[in-house]
Design a protein that fits this description.
It is built from two helices and no strands. With 72 residues, it is mainly alpha-helical. The chain starts with 11 loop residues before the first helix and ends with a helix. Residues 32-72 are annotated as: Disordered.
Length: 72
């Protein structure tokens, strides 16, 4: 898993695929769309949600690990 930062919780394969999709949308995507219809914005929102989910899962694992280590 990647460290803390923009790539946290994202595999190398996903990061490469994301960049390829972003590049494809840049050159072959629609000319003009509003913010709600913009595929690049949707792609960025998808990535942000994936990072947030990975952070939550990591924090949950760390909390469980701390609970196991601390004496009851």
């Amino acid at each position: 898993m990647a460290g803390k930062g923009d790539n946290e919780g994202l595999s190398v394969g996903y990061r490469i695929g994301y960049q390829l999709r972003r590049l494809g949308l840049t050159f072959f995507g629609p000319a003009q769309l509003g913010e709600t219809n913009d595929p690049t914005s949707r792609l960025a929102a998808e990535r942000a949600a994936k990072v947030a989910r990975a952070r939550r899962e990591r924090e949950q694992r760390e909390a469980e690990e701390r609970a196991r280590r601390s004496p009851a």
